[in-house]
Amino acid sequence: MLLRVEDLNVYYGEAVHALRNVSFEVQEGEILSIIGANGAGKSTLMWTLIGQLKPRSGKITFRGEVMKPVPHAVVSAGMALVPERRRLFPNLTVRENLMMGAYLRGDRGAVQKDLEYIFSLFPILKERLNQYAGTLSGGQQQMVATARGLMSRPKLLLMDEPSLGLAPILVNQIFETIQEISRQGTTILLVEQNAKKSLAIAHRAYVLEVGCIVRTGTGQELLNDPAVQAAYLGVSQHKEVILEGKEPC
Amino acid sequence: MQYAQAIFTNAAIYVIAALGLAIFTGHTGLFSLGHAAFMAVGGYAAAILTYFLGWSLIPALAVGVVAAVLVSLVIGYPTLRAKLRSDYFAIATLGFGEAVKVLLENLQLTQASRGLPGIEKLAGPLNTAVFLIITVVLCRNFLNSTYGRKIIAIGQDPVAAEMIGIKLLPNQVLSLAISAAFSGLSGGLLAHYITFIQPAIFSMDLSSLLTAGVVAGGMGSLTGPIVAIALFIVIPELFRGLALWRLVLYGVVLVIIINFRPKGLFGYEELNFDNLPKLFTIIGLTIGLTIAASLAKMFSATLGRVPAILIAALVALALTVALGYLGKLLAKWLRSPFGSFGQMLGSGYNHIVQTLQDKAVCFRNRDLPKLRELMNMVVEPSRMVSAQNSRKEPVLSIKSLSKRFGGVVAVDEFDLDVYEGELVGLIGPNGSGKTTVFNLISGYYPVSGGTITYRGEDLTKKAPTAIVLGGISRTFQNIRLFSSMTVLQNVTTALHDASNYSLLEAFVQWPWTVRATEERLKETAMELLKLVELEEYADRVANTLPYGLQRKLEIARALALRPRLLMLDEPAAGMNPQESQELVELIRRIHVAKDLTILLIEHHMDVVMNLCQRIAVINFGKKIAEGAPEQIQNDPLVLEAYLGEKVEDVVAS
Amino acid sequence: MIFQTIITGLSIGSIYALMAVGYSLVFSVLNFSNFAHGAVITLGAYIAWALMVSVFKMSFFPALLLSMLGAGIIAFFVERIAYSTLRHRRAPSLFLMISAMGVAIALQNVLYATVGANLYALPPIFTQDTFSIGAATISRMDIFAFVFSVIAIALLTIVLNYTKVGTAIRAASYDSEMVSVLGVNLDVLVAVLFLLAGSLGGMAGVFMGIKYMVYPSMGWITNKAYIGAVIGGLGSLPGAIVGGILLGLLESLVSVTVIGSVHLSTFRDVFSFGILVLLLVFRPTGLFGRHVEEKL
């Protein structure tokens, strides 16, 4: 088991209970997808996993160790986040952005080799290396953000809405890249509003609804689940079906 | 006794200035670090009049107040108009404060840095006490009126305030002017109490003392600054010999409070039965420390230093605990039926006003029908208007609307017509430009191109507040309530347009108008809360409500503005299926009850498909489809936008 | 005459720039006006005074280095005590500014209460030592301060542009949360930031002390360097440098200007504060600052 999350509870202020008793697991080598509507708590989950948000209760075990909510400890343990809306540093060059991803590493030679790996995934970045990140197109920015996440050589890559705001053709490319990264041996936890595509490439998936995990199964199972289809796949022939969990919270 | 009087007068004068600052900084959230300058202006103006022209105190003070107000307008209007970041604003006031001081240091009229010595001693404990009481009453009355609520709203969330039709600039300037008036009064009293005036008095140290008082006392409170300033003045007096360390104390207190208790002593609360013990504890601690200090000195000769300090500390502790307990007892007694007499004494003013007002309502019933009519419009908008409008003319017509942020095109040649009474959905993937369309309609962003016409009027040239008061209100994707206000206050604040008494009436809480209006506002607000099923939460502070209820409160607040067109931005976000089902019912209910036209952004497809008669789909800022829900669900372009693939692939799979 | 004015302006301007850089560094990452920086500058000057005059009789260079180190360490502790709690709580930047104001008031008045309000002179390194170019008489000290300030700022630029920590500081000036999520220990980064800003401030304090005097309010909140940083645009490094030097030049120009019988120098301070207020009203982002819009 690469990552085990047990009974995670996260609050915003006193009143807003953003994640309620969330438990799930990520296995080595898989693409795990979490789908859910806006405000379901997907991004909250990602920022909690990386250690930036402090859970009120619950346990996060990664590679056998209990993680404290301290980002630099979590990153050096082998997790990396590609955040929603990319969050590049527009005032830094592409190279500097990538090097920020490798901040905790001291092995210069290996970092150089990893750059080659990045260029094999995204050849265009080699030409843009000295350009300011703020001047790139949306698709290229998503590439840099993904590459920046990979530069720390993570065991587990957290990807938050990588298809957001991208044209359909680029969306397809992003999902192909995710599969390629997975084939190269990095485990991926993918959070997406594009439920259909993310379920299609996921080995397993969870459905998050108002802070609760309400469904789980293989990507294919959820893809064929009428309730999931009604709520998330836009192909609603079953209006009356409402997704409800087994009252976990 | 003489000495006690001196301390009291000194403290009272600074408390008046601090109350002024509390009206501005404490309630608008804008920090002024230059309020000493208003004290200087008021003080110098009054002092010149009595010193050179032999005026008497009251008219001189009045002129001082007017002078301070005028100067506050001169500095306040441009700086507030520029809508500076809160810290830039603070720095601008700081620069202003220093500039006034340096100017006075070089002005021949006021004898430069020597100042005016030998001013007649016209202010003493007695008239200062009277002025203090008047100041407290006026400040309290102001804050308990529509005018005060507008300022508090701006302090809590300027954007939300503007979006419920509260103009920022005039209200902020008003608050600064009131605040400067009290500072000017304080400056005038100070000059005539210490009998001299010179620029050095009005340094940054004084401004920071006032600021420290407001921060330590608590933002959004009058009680807090009174207590804090009193402590700041009294404590160093009690421990003389520490005069040099006085300013160190202010600095350290500022750092400690802002770091560990940003609410201050009485943040967002006034003195009441619940916090009476707290006040008594603070007083007990002060007295205890004073006695302890002299005790320690007394005993250290006979008993040695350590036991003396121990005894002193014990005495201080005992006094603190004892007075805290006394406060508790007093609060209990005041609450009991036996205490009603004391209660009346304690809030005699309140009682008198209330009695007067009750009578007033009886006597002046003839004003009520008009008021009631006005209020009824809030609860049930007349249906006449809708009858006049033909079904053919769109209420809201958006033509080739565009918005660019730098190089990014957020909205691109967007068209949409909305007809009277319709419930139209606006959907699209995240980041597709839906909320930007709302922001353009409500005037928050200027448009880059295109037109938005509402009932024949071009909205693109109107201010956000005018658009709201013209009948278009909205809710927000990221909830924007006035978080420290109660649920009821959130709604009454939005009813500001329905109150019609003047500022002067507000200051004296004129019973014949203010009280009657306030009662009706409250009733109206309660009716709206009933409509969204929040009446049982009326007295809860807004940010202690769960998400779902906060969203409903936003809807109630938007309804209080008497909209004809209501824009809801993701009202079901963060709701579970049951809650969103209830929300659907609620939206249906208000749609009919208020005869509204509704524009809805929503991601929950079940909500949209259930509610909307017509749906527009937006992606990359462009409208890609429009039609009935069934049409939309099978539109190939929509499927592509949401699923990111060509429809042939979908069909194939 | 004009040449001399420019030289004087450049010399004082470069010291302003050295101080302004400290304000801007902190502002760029933490987004607040660190009023305590002025107090750190003052303490730097007092350390030099203690080392060179009152306690030890050290020579200039070791005293300068120790003052820089001392000021840097003080800045670090100020951060720990007054800002780190607020940072971790993600308090609004206004709170940090108020806290900084508290520190500034407390530190300055600790000096008044202990050392006293007296003015102390630092030993003249080569203040008296002047030379002439044409009609202008130029003090060696002015040249020395200018050259040293330029070297210090150049070194800072190199650190920011070519080291890992420097890159992280620049990144954090845009998005410190993201920097943290990439594995950078923000506490360490902020500590480095304050050490850098503090030691540059300490250096400026020593030069100020030599050029003028050492006294408790020499680095008070409303000091000129802060105004210089605002002119350049808070948070911008080139802005701070240009703003500081510009203010130095303007000031020395105003000081020698006489209109009718009025010496403008009397109103020199009104002039600086006037610029500050006007600038904030009409161009709050200064010459080089960037504008951030609130998202709805």
Count of DSSP E strands of chain A? 10
Beta-strand portion of chain C reads under 5%
**Secondary structural class of chain A:** alpha/beta
Helix content of chain A: 25-40%
- How would you name the CATH homologous superfamily of chain C? ABC transporter involved in vitamin B12 uptake, BtuC
Q: How large, in whole angstroms, is the Cα Rg of chain A?
A: 18 Å
* Total count of domains of chain A: 1
Shape of chain A: globular
Order of helices and strands of chain C: HHHHEEHHHHHEEH
State the CATH class of chain A: Alpha Beta
Count of DSSP-assigned helices of chain A: 10
The largest sheet of chain C has its strands arranged as 1-2
Radius of gyration of chain C: 19 Å
Largest interface, chains and sizes: B-C, 51 and 45 residues
CATH topology of chain A: Rossmann fold
Describe the 3D structure.
With 249 residues, chain A is α/β, with parallel strands linked by helices. Chain A has 10 helices and 10 strands. Chain A has a single domain, classed as Rossmann fold, CATH 3.40.50. Chain B is of the alpha/beta class. Chain B is 62% helix and 10% strand. In chain B, strand 11 and strand 12 form a beta hairpin. Chain C is mainly α and 296 residues long. Chain C has a single domain, classed as Orthogonal Bundle (ABC transporter involved in vitamin B12 uptake, BtuC). The longest helix of chain C has 29 residues. The radius of gyration of chain C is 19 Å and the shape is globular. The interface between B and C is large, with 51 and 45 residues.
Write out key terms for the chains shown.
heterotrimer; A: 249 residues; Rossmann fold; 6-stranded mixed beta sheet; 36% helix; 25% strand; B: 653 residues; alpha/beta; 4-stranded antiparallel beta sheet; 12 strands; elongated
What's the helix and strand layout?
The complex is a heterotrimer of chains A (249), B (653) and C (296).
Chain A: E1 3-12, E2 16-26, E3 31-35, H1 42-49, E4 57-62, E5 65-66, H2 71-77, E6 79-82, H3 94-101, H4 108-121, H5 124-127, H6 138-150, E7 156-160, H7 168-183, E8 187-192, H8 195-201, E9 204-209, E10 212-218, H9 219-223, H10 226-232
Helix pairs in contact in A: 3-6
Chain B: H1 2-28, H2 35-52, H3 57-81, H4 86-106, E1 116-117, H5 125-143, H6 146-156, H7 158-163, H8 168-194, E2 196-197, H9 204-217, H10 223-238, H11 246-260, H12 276-303, H13 305-335, H14 340-346, H15 348-363, H16 368-379, H17 384-388, E3 394-405, E4 408-419, E5 423-427, H18 434-441, E6 449-454, E7 457-458, H19 464-469, E8 472-474, H20 487-494, H21 503-508, H22 511-531, H23 547-559, E9 565-569, H24 577-593, E10 597-601, H25 605-611, E11 614-619, E12 622-627, H26 629-633, H27 636-643, H28 647-652
Helix pairs in contact in B: 1-5, 1-8, 1-9, 1-10, 2-3, 2-4, 2-8, 3-8, 6-8, 6-20, 9-10, 9-11, 12-13, 14-15, 15-22, 16-22, 20-22, 20-23, 22-23
Chain C: H1 2-30, H2 36-54, H3 60-88, H4 93-114, E1 130-133, E2 136-139, H5 140-162, H6 164-181, H7 186-211, H8 224-232, H9 237-255, E3 258-259, E4 262-263, H10 268-282
Antiparallel strand pairs in C: 1-2, 3-4
Helix pairs in contact in C: 1-5, 1-6, 1-7, 1-8, 1-9, 2-3, 2-4, 2-7, 3-4, 3-7, 5-6, 5-7, 6-7, 8-9, 8-10
